[in-house]
């Protein structure tokens, strides 16, 4: 994300104070941020505060003689890589949906040719009002990615959906939006829709595992693999956008939690097996994690070099996929992953039969797939083998999530 430019529009609501933490997180992630503060937003935070945090000029007026002499609103609308509206109030969403351009914020939103991400915040009744729902649907149809608000107690004393997502969740959505190609396609439409507009999996619970496991040898060494967790995290995010309640069981990775996902961090294969069991029952499980096959009995102190190679006695780790398939609380749909370097289809087909999975998603990891941005997979099921073209991991995730929705919705 280093060098990416964010234009942050701060709307008028009590949640505007969270924009301060969001700015800090954006900059910590290596991105720059410029702020546009609406009149309403200025009732809650000051231009001085945002300027100090962003280390950049804060823009407040369409009628700034110096800026507008240089067509400042056009320049602002085009120079960012992503435009973020947070908080996006009910009024601001309504004006965006109607194409109104009566202040700096709405004018540059109408003038921008860059992707737009909106994080709503408002009273629960306002969020659930038919007018707001229509406005959100219109914006999503227009290609704006509108996040789902969090649910919880509000400043007004009521409880329900309408809270601004936490800054960490907004940052994760920003990073996800910047990491995928913005193209006009069916896939992009799926990315632009979120829980309410694309709720095929609403009411369903899906468990996703992701990343590697670390099996300790001593306090400073461990057995691991090269899994980055990117594909599993992308799948968790795609399922959440389809309305599923997602439990993401993650090995040690440095990735932000996808918006709307419940995350459980683990270290070892046994930790992961226990976390998956604790998350049951579930309608589906997608086991993407590259779980270490073996473990050793760890030493309590660092093993010293003494001129001889230490002997490590390996023990087999629990087979999470096979255990789920044979267990009494087997999910209705069980999807495993097979990372292979040779005979990809044959090995994946055999793995599906051996483990008792419904589907196996197989890929050739002999290149730079582990840690890379793209993936080419084969979906192995009872019906046969589907060969998918190489695509960004986010698109693989969106396509697989759609298939899962077809199977269990």
Automatic annotation (TrEMBL):
Pfam families: DFP, Flavoprotein. CTP binds at residues 293, 302, 318-321, 337, 351, 355. Residues 206-409 are annotated as: Phosphopantothenate--cysteine ligase. The active site is at residue 156. Its EC number is 4.1.1.36, 6.3.2.5. It catalyses: (R)-4'-phosphopantothenate + L-cysteine + CTP = N-[(R)-4-phosphopantothenoyl]-L-cysteine + CMP + diphosphate + H(+); N-[(R)-4-phosphopantothenoyl]-L-cysteine + H(+) = (R)-4'-phosphopantetheine + CO2. Residues 4-176 form the Flavoprotein domain. GO terms for biological process: coenzyme A biosynthetic process; pantothenate catabolic process. The keyword Nuclease does not apply. InterPro entries: CoaB-like_sf, CoaBC, DNA/pantothenate-metab_flavo_C, Flavin_trans-like, Flavoprotein. Keywords: Decarboxylase, Flavoprotein, FMN, Ligase, Lyase, Magnesium, Metal-binding, Multifunctional enzyme. Transmembrane segments: none annotated. In the N-terminal section; belongs to the HFCD (homo-oligomeric flavin containing Cys decarboxylase) superfamily. In the C-terminal section; belongs to the PPC synthetase family. Catalyzes two sequential steps in the biosynthesis of coenzyme A. In the first step cysteine is conjugated to 4'-phosphopantothenate to form 4-phosphopantothenoylcysteine. In the second step the latter compound is decarboxylated to form 4'-phosphopantotheine. This is Coenzyme A biosynthesis bifunctional protein CoaBC. It comes from Sphingomonas changbaiensis NBRC 104936. The gene is coaBC.
């Amino acid at each position: 994300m280093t060098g990416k430019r964010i234009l942050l529009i701060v709307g008028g609501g009590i949640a505007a104070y969270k924009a301060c933490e969001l700015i800090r997180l954006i900059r910590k992630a290596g991105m720059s941020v410029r702020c546009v503060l609406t009149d309403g937003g200025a009732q809650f935070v000051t231009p001085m505060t945002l300027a100090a945090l962003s280390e950049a000029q804060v823009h407040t007026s369409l009628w700034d003689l110096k800026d507008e002499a240089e067509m400042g609103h056009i320049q602002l609308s085009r120079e960012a890589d992503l435009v973020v509206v947070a908080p996006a109030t009910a009024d601001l969403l309504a004006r965006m949906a109607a194409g109104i351009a009566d202040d700096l914020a709405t004018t540059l939103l109408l003038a921008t040719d860059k992707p737009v991400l909106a994080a709503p915040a408002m009273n629960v009744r306002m969020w659930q009002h038919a007018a707001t729902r229509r406005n959100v649907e219109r914006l999503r149809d227009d290609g704006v990615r509108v996040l789902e608000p969090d649910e919880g107690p509000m400043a007004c004393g009521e409880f329900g959906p309408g809270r601004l997502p936490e800054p960490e969740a907004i940052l994760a959505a920003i990073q996800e939006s910047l990491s995928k190609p913005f193209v006009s396609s069916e896939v992009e439409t799926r990315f632009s829709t979120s829980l309410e507009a694309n709720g095929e999996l609403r009411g369903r619970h899906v468990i996703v595992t992701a990343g590697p496991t670390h099996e300790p040898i001593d306090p400073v060494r461990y057995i691991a693999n090269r899994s980055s967790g990117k594909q599993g995290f992308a799948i968790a995010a795609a399922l959440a956008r389809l309305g599923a309640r997602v439990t993401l069981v993650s090995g040690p990775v440095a990735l932000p939690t996808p918006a709307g996902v419940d995350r459980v961090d683990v270290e070892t294969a046994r930790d992961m097996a226990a976390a998956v069991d604790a998350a049951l029952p579930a309608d589906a499980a997608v086991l993407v994690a590259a779980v270490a096959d073996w473990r050793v009995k760890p030493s309590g102190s660092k093993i010293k070099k003494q001129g001889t190679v230490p002997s490590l006695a390996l023990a087999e780790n629990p087979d999470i996929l096979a255990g789920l398939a044979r267990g009494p609380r087997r999910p209705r749909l069980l999807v495993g992953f097979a990372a292979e370097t040779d005979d990809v289809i044959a090995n994946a087909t055999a793995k599906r039969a051996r483990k008792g999975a419904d589907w196996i998603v197989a890929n050739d990891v002999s290149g730079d797939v582990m840690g890379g941005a793209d993936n080419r997979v084969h979906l192995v099921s009872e019906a046969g083998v589907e060969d998918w073209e190489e695509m960004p991991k986010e698109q693989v995730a969106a396509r697989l999530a759609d298939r899962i929705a077809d199977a269990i919705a």
